[in-house]
Amino acid sequence: MHKSGFVNIIGNPNVGKSTLMNALVGERLSIITSKAQTTRHRIMGIVNGDDFQIVYSDTPGILRPNYKLQESMMKFVHGAVKDADILLYVTDTVEAADSASEEVVAKMQQSGIPVIVVINKIDLTTPEKLEELVDLWRERLPQARIVPVSAKSLFNIGGLFDLILAELPEGEPFYPKDALTDRTMRFFASEIIREKVLLNYSKEIPYSVEIAIDEYKEEPAIDRISAIIYVARDSQKGIIIGHKGEMLKKIGTAARLDLEKFLGKKVFLQLHVKVNDNWRNNERQLRRFGYLE
Hints:
Blueprint: E1 3-11, H1 17-25, E2 43-49, E3 52-58, H2 68-82, E4 86-92, H3 102-111, E5 115-120, H4 127-140, E6 145-148, H5 157-167, H6 185-200, E7 210-218, E8 222-231, H7 234-241, H8 246-263, E9 266-275, H9 283-288
Parallel strand pairs: 1-3, 1-4, 4-5, 5-6, 8-9
Antiparallel strand pairs: 2-3, 7-8
Helix pairs in contact: 6-8
């Protein structure tokens, strides 16, 4: 008997969905920062065993869209609710109840899909508070299984995995058994660069940035990557570059080191900054960047 299925991870921003995905997959596929809306795409991570294949999907945090980019991000979330074999709804011990998630919770209730509520960050609360949260979620989603974890410290990740495996339907694998993800190296290169922008800038800058890989050449000893950092306004270009190019150099160095660790080889990275006016509300540009089909 072989089991396989799609296990889709959804929840509000900043509850640790990407950390959980990376913990379950055992690889750092999703970028992680303390900023909301870090994840923009739906990213798959595949875990294989002799008699199972689990296809995890990390998704953007649930939000009320303010522009077309965010509308596309929410389409990824709603799509994940529809096509899952198992839904992992991630909450944590510090977030307040958010009405933005009510629509998604209602869709989960109506879907008939097995739901596991993952209460993350249990190291940040007391046993009494955790018990209250478990009771609250039992009331909200009576059919769901509830699993407390700490994704950051890997606490109870094994228990969660066992429950997922038990709920997984029988079926043949969807991807080759040596596959880790459905994404290309170009995608991961762009995400690693964007992560460095998120970590090094504040206010609106990180949310106005998109990365495009202009060129990616693989050689035996080194990968040569040329990337463009797009910003939404002229005023943002100088901020990204910094005085005498110092900020751009800082981002490039940090991204190169992470890419070398990810790839296990040397990387030559070139970064350029260009203005792409109001790209977040431009359907043609959103299609170009992979947010629309």
